[in-house]
Amino acid sequence: DSGVTQTPKHLITATGQRVTLRCSPRSGDLSVYWYQQSLDQGLQFLIQYYNGEERAKGNILERFSAQQFPDLHSELNLSSLELGDSALYFCASSARLAEQFFGPGTRLTVL
Amino acid sequence: GIQVEQSPPDLILQEGANSTLRCNFSDSVNNLQWFHQNPWGQLINLFYIPSGTKQNGRLSATTVATERYSLLYISSSQTTDSGVYFCAVEPASGGSNYKLTFGKGTLLTVNP
Lengths: 111, 112
What we know:
The complex is a heterodimer of chains A (111) and B (112).
Chain A: E1 5-7, E2 10-13, E3 19-24, E4 31-38, E5 42-50, E6 53-57, E7 64-68, E8 74-78, E9 87-94, E10 101-102, E11 106-110
Parallel strand pairs in A: 2-11
Antiparallel strand pairs in A: 1-3, 3-8, 4-5, 4-9, 5-6, 7-8, 9-10, 9-11
Chain B: E1 4-7, E2 10-14, E3 19-25, E4 29-37, E5 43-48, E6 52-56, E7 59-64, E8 69-74, E9 83-91, E10 101-102, E11 106-111
Parallel strand pairs in B: 2-11
Antiparallel strand pairs in B: 1-3, 3-8, 4-5, 4-9, 6-7, 7-8, 9-10, 9-11
């Protein structure tokens, strides 16, 4: 158990819908990262937050957004979903200048 | 951006055999991590090893940062070692963010 929690574990929805994925980092970790794992793109970095502020963006679509709240949990919002958004979404957390620990992931299926 | 290449892409072993997985990266790194993704999809931290050598039970890893590669050794493999092994790096030129760039992984199958 990495100490990072993600909910829900599985999510099945339809094209055009909007979903929210939730992540709670390890106790004391200020950085939260979101990654997407798909069959064709592999594991890709989406976005990073540090203590509530966006720090870096990767290959995140404009239809996707994220935020980190004062209690340090984070949410990833995916809207206008397409079939190609089906993937495993991971959240990770780290203390500053330290290794990243990954949550169990949310498996999103868009039908 | 930084390139991460892992080899071999696939590896099939008999239980009890040893193996070496390699990760080459194209630029200087601040961080290098090895992960095991089990059949249920969980990413499990194996090593945080930007340089040097570490050992944890039957697993050990070595990173030679000056030559831009890392090796993961698995000894006396067990069926539970099956899964995908990922190398991920944080480039030194990334500024103040710590995003990881992943290789494509090595799919390891250990047969009983």
